[in-house]
Amino acid sequence: MGIEIERKFLVTDDRWRQQIERSIEMRQGCLAQDERRAIRVRIFGNQAHINIKASDDGIHRHEFEYAIPLADARDLFEHVVEGPVVEKIRHEIHVGEHLWEVDEFLGANAPLVVAEVELAHADEAFERPPWLGAEVSEDKRYYNSSLALRPYSRW
């Protein structure tokens, strides 16, 4: 079982853009979800995955991700995905010893930008970049599955 320990923060300004190492456009659609679980399909570049997440506290999550054929993912988007699709650009940035994923949301979730860092344990120390804002790890509104159902622009 994969346990992901992730902390999520709002981003306060554009200074992070100067540090981008890699960017990739992503689309993800929900196949099934409830209050604590989400099963979704993701396409990024020429790759596709099925992603399963379950969480009780927003920081510790059970996560499983499996590669699937791109054609299958496209079929899932066309025939199975329920509700709106979340589109974003994921930017990778190293700060200190950690990799930050900065998600710049598009469409109905623009102009939302959040930064996530994966940790070995919930209280692991990490360098806070100057563009990091309030922590929203436990705020379910910022989960991608929630953003699909209630986009940021409608808050």
Could you characterize what this model shows?
The chain is mainly beta and 155 residues long. The protein contains two helices and nine strands. It has helices spanning 70-79, 144-149, and strands spanning 3-11, 22-33, 37-44, 47-55, 60-67, 82-95, 98-105, 113-118, 132-135. The chain has an eight-stranded antiparallel barrel. The longest helix is centred in the middle third of the chain and has 10 residues, at 70-79. The termini are far apart. The model has no long low-confidence stretch (mean pLDDT 93).
Summarize the structure.
With 155 residues, the chain is mainly beta.
CA-atom Rg in angstroms: 15 Å
**Form type:** globular
Unreliable stretches: none
Main beta-sheet annotation: 8 strands, antiparallel, barrel
- What string gives the helices and strands in order? EEEEEHEEEEH
End-to-end C-alpha gap: 34 Å
Strand percentage = over 45%
Decide which structural class fits the backbone. Answer: mainly beta
Strands side by side in the biggest sheet? 1-5-4-3-2-6-7-8
Total helices: the number is 2
Number of strands: 9
Taking all residues together, what is the mean pLDDT? Answer: 93
- In helices, the fraction of residues equals 10-25%
